[in-house]
Every structure is written in structure tokens, then in C-alpha cells.
Amino acid sequence: MTDPRSDLSPQASHPTAELCAFLSTLEFSDLPDEVVARTEELFLDWVASALAAKGAHPIPVFERYASKMGPSDGPCTVLVNRTRTSPYFAAFVNGASSHLVEQDDLHNSSVLHPATVVFPAVFAAAQDLGKSGADLLLASAAGYEAGVRIGEFMGRSHYKVFHTTGTVGTLAAAVGVAKLLGLDADTMLHAVGSAGTQASGLWEFLRDAADSKQLHTAKAAADGLLAAYMAADGLTGARRILDGEKGMAAGMSTDADPAFLTDRLGTRWALLETSFKFHASCRHTHPAADALHVLMQREGLRHEDIGAITAKVHQAAIDVLGGVTTPTTVHQAKFSMGTVLGLIAVHGDASIAGVEAHALTDPRVSALREKVQMVLDPEVDAAYPKRWLGRIELDTQDGRHFSCAVDAPKGDPDNTLTRPELEDKFRRLTQFSKATDDTEATELISRVWSLRDRASVTGLFDKVAR
Amino acid sequence: MTDPRSDLSPQASHPTAELCAFLSTLEFSDLPDEVVARTEELFLDWVASALAAKGAHPIPVFERYASKMGPSDGPCTVLVNRTRTSPYFAAFVNGASSHLVEQDDLHNSSVLHPATVVFPAVFAAAQDLGKSGADLLLASAAGYEAGVRIGEFMGRSHYKVFHTTGTVGTLAAAVGVAKLLGLDADTMLHAVGSAGTQASGLWEFLRDAADSKQLHTAKAAADGLLAAYMAADGLTGARRILDGEKGMAAGMSTDADPAFLTDRLGTRWALLETSFKFHASCRHTHPAADALHVLMQREGLRHEDIGAITAKVHQAAIDVLGGVTTPTTVHQAKFSMGTVLGLIAVHGDASIAGVEAHALTDPRVSALREKVQMVLDPEVDAAYPKRWLGRIELDTQDGRHFSCAVDAPKGDPDNTLTRPELEDKFRRLTQFSKATDDTEATELISRVWSLRDRASVTGLFDKVAR
């Protein structure tokens, strides 16, 4: 009788082992300059998102939980309150914080928000271990490369029910922390196994506007860190947690493709494909929002002119946004296509301050919301998830008809944000929540732009003297 | 357009809401005496399993992780080392410990091991909150009633890939802790939502004999506790996390049946259906082990007489045990049908000390292992998971043929362990690991037998003065 474990020996090659072999031996000098620079930019953008959540529900619930269950001091920074705690709880609170205001980055084809799961874990571990800025950047890049490929592997069927950033995010965080811990390929594989068997996060919360989205990212970051630290201390995990017959794909996907796991390792830098978010809403609303903005500018339209808007979208947009018709919370408004297009039409943007001020209370926005419908478009759906196309049809009150197409929404790799735009976004987000003043924002930005040269990240967010 | 959230209002009735309404108003005086007594017995049995793991890999990895990430003191006892920490980390280490030696209880039809997920969470919270023994017993019963019904709801398809004790255990733990926190029905529903969206645990680890089984129970207990504490502090969760269109059943089951969730609430006490484990091996080996034991006694057979053994089993036994042919660790040996039947045949039992001493090293056991095969039996499979039937066919070396059928394996509700038998098991397990001596065992047993009268459980496991 053939032993079914025979192909599971450490020596046997399979895609997850190959991925770990590549990432565990990756060195800082292997990273192209462009990757290093973009990682710094993604890190700054992550810090902005985390600080923007200061004081907003449910983040204080996470802070209080960490205080109650964790130690009262430690090597790692909780960004929203600048206290220190253990790596697990810093990753936990920072993971929750950076996914609240819907401004954190997104990788299109994997539908993964990498920053909010990778950076909280890697930054906490780097502070704990006294690592350098270059170590932090390398480990973060490893987490991105793993997370994107695993997200692509899990496929569209997974994303229909599971919040990929919660599930796959656990593995991305584990790989980043494993890299900082210096784990060899086989030990990293154990970390991935322990991360995958903890992977969770269901979309069901969206219909009730419940607080689970932040719980998912908090847990993904913290549990991924747990998996790596415990692997370093000898906890073993399933080697084929991804493609094994009782692994993640077997349980949670119907269209998984192992070829993605090792896609162009060393030549494709998936991190560079990550999009920055410009609007403060669910990324599925962005292509249509940009197309509407372009159209209104081009035709000189005012919101009063609009009779009806059709957003032609991919199926996942309907899956995620379709349940939200009349939002009852600011967070839910970010998942309402009608509200987001209403904000664009009436106020010209869907910024963090604009959503907060107008999404639920401006009757002109509500009126526009009722004029918006989403329809599935075959061309848009076929391009997804690799490309997120914006297609708008608009009828005016006086009977005119317009169309507009945008192929690369603002913030996409082909239409990315510049460093000055990212600095501006950092200031807007951190001042929105009063987490920094302008002087401190300037100092923090300058620290991040010199991250690759920093000898230790332990004091990176120490308060700036005033 | 109909708002799809309309049936999700707090007022709308659905099975999970009904379950929470029943459990949140359940009082100690509602519990039949038999339920109270059995809960004490299950609790003692749980403590025995936890203490039996003292010093055994991977439990020290969990202890060190809790020390590093958690506080250095707190209200809650870590059983294996009698240190104190916060509720989260006590639940974490105790949840890992009590599922290691494969002696913890099992509910047949849900295929859930309730003790190892419910008691770590409930005991930690009860110590934290200074609750009484009666409070602890009531909350534990609530956790069992919820866990069993949710396990049954998730169905056999779930158990094929997912370790139900890890997934459903998270919700059972959350309900128990919610009960101690005094949450009302709607807040308990939020706790269940936050627990369900964290539910995880895949069987893939079993093929490489990895350490994930203890990680699953550690996380289920700790994450369930997290869900309840955070719900008490205002974190909301999906109300239909079980049967919603993007909930647990949608993502992780193909045969879920909501009728189980409210099955005979208040008249059926599922806790009473829980089996104690007699053999120190996977429960799927027990029916055949008992049948072999009975057969050998009845016919006066010696192990040298045996030519071949056929264990006629249900499909889940093949799913869980089929991957293990030649075990390489003691833990894996507990999942090897051939090894367990070999131990019964050669040594007359598969006790914790016997498995440790003989499973991997006794050539007579190895020789027997090669003579055992499992075959799917339609009658056994049809009865499962409600009843776990033992059916053995045995051919002797000299050409005789015997059959034996056992309908209620030792420890099943119809063939349960008495208090003296449980006391004996407690002594065997705790002395195996040198966690207690006989004097302390006697004292701890007596404390548990008076649990219902104890004013506070905070000092329940304080060291006994010698």
C-alpha cells in the first residue's frame, strides 16, 4: 500500500515549498530599487490609514481588549495611541486600525489588501527583534509576494464568500514575520501551515454593517505573527496546507490554481502591481467613481442635471456591494455604490472627510443614490480581477445620454500616486483623526522616506518633540 | 427594491437568534440535576486531559508563547504549570493542553470535542470575573448545548475537510463566555457572529503528523473568549453567521440543516449525550477496539493466534484515519487503526501509558498493525454520526473465523464511565505526566465534586499544601 505521506516529505517539491524556498533565501540586494522605493511608499500609506482610525469605533474596543489581555508594556508600538505592548497585540490593534477608513492599498488580481495584514505583523516583529529598516522592507516585500500569489491561487470562488484579506492575509503576515525571524525554507513552510489552518473571515458581516472587517485584519496580522513565532520555536504545520486534499483550497475554493503560487518568482514583483486607494470607499466603487468624475468634468455636468446613472461592473462588485442599498453607518456608506457616486456628483470627491460629513446626511447625495443602478458587464467582468475597468452610462434630466470609460482608476499601477500625492494623503488622513499635527506629519514622512537606511525601527514612531 | 437586510433586524426571528434567546435566559435552576452532575464529571475529565499534557511537545511551545506575548500575571490559571495570566492566554494554553493525549470527551452526532474548547474559555472567564461554581457549570452547559447543535448543523460534509472542534468550537466557547458575562440575546448573537467569522481548522495537518490539532483547540477557546469579551464591549458581528448567504454553511458545508440549531431546546440536553474516552486514541478507533477486546476475551484468543482483522467502519473513520499507515510519532499512532488494535491484541488496552510505551517500539504491535484493514460498512455508516458501531471480523492463523459487534463503545452515554472510573482515569492521566501526586489528585477530585457549591472558582486549582 502506498503511503499517502510519501509525497509530503520535506524533500518533495511542491508549489508551496518552492515559494518558501525562494522567499526564505531572498536578500535585500535582490530587490530592484523600484521595489524598495514602492515598499516605503506602501508603508507610509499604511501608517496613514492606521493613524486615520484613531478614536473611531470599533478601534477603541480593540485597544481596550489588548490592554486587558496583553502586557502593559513591550517593544512594539500601537499606532493610534503610541503605547507599547507585545508583538501579538501590536499587530492586532494596528491590523484593525489600518483597515477602517477604507484607504489602505489593494492588489487587484488577488483582491487582497496586503498592507493592513503584512505591515502590522512585520513592523511589530521588527521592533521586537531590533531589526533595521532594510530588514523591515525585505520582510514586507516577502509578505506581499506570498500574499498576492496565494490570493490568486485561491481564486474568485473563494472571494465570493470569504474575505481574502482575512484568510490569505494570515499567510502573508506569517511569511513576512518568518522572514524577519530568519526561518529556513522548511520552517517557513511550517509557519505557512499553521497560518493556513487559522485562516478565516466571512463576508456575511457586510449585510448588517457589523464590525468584523477590522476583526479579520487584526486577527490575520496577529495570527500570522503567531504562526511564525511558534514555528521558530518548533511548532510544526501541514506542508501542503494550500493544495493538499484537506487544505485551504479543498475546503474554501472551487477554482484554485497552483500555478499562481510560483508565478515568475524573482522576475515578477507583485508588490509593484499594488494600487493605492484615492477615494475613501470600497475599491469596487472606484472605477465607476473615476469614470463619473471624468465624465462630469468633460461634459460640464452638475449633479442637478443627472437623471440616471448605470455603473457597469464586474460580478464581485455586485457580490460585495449589492447588499447595501440604504446605508445606516459611515462605514457601510463606503460600500454603497449609489452613495459614492452621489458624493462624486455633488461634492466632486469621496474623500475621508467628505464621506464622514455628507454620506448619510446630505439629501442631495441621498437623491443621487436612488438614481444609480449597477449592472453586470461582460467586458468588465472578463477583465477582472487583473484589471478593474470603469464604465458609466449617464442620462440627463433633459434626455441627453453620455458614456465614459476609465481603464486605470486613480491609484492603479498605471496611474499611481506620486510621493507628493502620498504625502498629501498622509496629511489629510492623519489630521482628519487628529493623530498628528502638520509638524509631526512632516517628521514622520521624512523618517519613512529614509527607512532603508535606518539601523533599527524600534523607535520609528516615538513621539516627535514639540 | 426590497432591502435584503430587512430580515436581519434584531427583531427578526431566525434559528441562531432563537438559540441565543434560549441560552441567554437559561438559569442554573433550569438545569436538571443529571445535567449539573454530568457537567462536573465532564469538567473533571477535562482537567485530567489538560494536566496529562504537562511537559509533552508541543505544549511548552504554547506556554512560552503565552509568556512572551501575554502578561506575567493575571487572574487565570494555566493548568500545566499553575502560573497565572490573562483570560485570553489561559484559554489558549489550556485549550492546547486538554486536546493532546486524545482522552478528552466527544459528542458523537456533532463530532465535536466540547470540553477542550468550552472549559478553557469558560474557566478562564469565570476566574477573571470571580464567578461561582454554579455560574461555571451553567455557562459550560450553555457552551455544550450551542456547540453540539452548531456542529450538527454544519453536517458531515464540513467534517470531511474541517476539524469541527476547531471551527464550531470557537462558537461554543463564545457562547459559554457570553453567558458568564451576562450578555443579552442580541449581544450574544454578536459574539456568535464574531466567533463564526474567526472559525478555522483544517484536517490537512494529520497526514504529516503536524502540531495543528492543539493549535485548533487553543485558538477556538481563546478566539471564542475574545468574541464574547469584545461583544460585551460593543463589537458587533454578523447576525446570520451560520445560515446567511455568506456565512459559515455557505462557505464550509454542503449539507447544513438549520433545524438542528433549535432542536428541542429545553427538553433535549445534548451535554448528556457526550461520551468519555476510555482508550487514549482517536475516537474513530474506539468502536473497533472495544469489539476486538470483547471478542478476544470471549474466545480466549491470544495475539499470536490472529491471522487477519477487518474493522468495519463508517466513512469518516476512513477519512480521518486512512492517511496514517505507519505512524512515526506517538500522537500519530493514536490515529492508526492498526496500531490501536495491535495494542488491544498484545497488551489488552490502549491506555495513555500503553500507547506511549509500546505503540512505536513493540514489534508484536507492528506485526499486528500489518494484519488490520478497514472497510466501509453500510450499516455502520448509516448509523453514524448518531451511533458509533463497532464491528470486527477476525481470522485466526489456523483458519477459524469470528465476528463481534459492540453497539455502545465504553464511555458512550449508554455505557458511560462511573464517578469511580472517572476518578481512576483522573489519577492515571495526571500521574502519567507527574502533574499531581496521589494526595493532590484526591484533593482536586473532591474540589470538583463540590463545584456546584463553590462561591468562587478563582482559587480552584491553587496548589494543595503538602
TrEMBL record, chains A, B:
The record's GO molecular-function terms, alphabetically, read: lyase activity
Q: Which Gene3D superfamilies match?
A: 2-methylcitrate dehydratase PrpD
The segment(s) forming the MmgE/PrpD C-terminal domain are: 279-450
Q: What protein am I looking at? A: 2-methylcitrate dehydratase PrpD
Organism, per UniProt? Pigmentiphaga litoralis
What family is it from?
Belongs to the PrpD family.
State the source organism's domain of life: Bacteria
Which ranges carry the MmgE/PrpD N-terminal domain? 18-260
Kindly give the PANTHER family that the UniProt entry links to this protein: 2-METHYLCITRATE DEHYDRATASE, 2-METHYLCITRATE DEHYDRATASE-RELATED
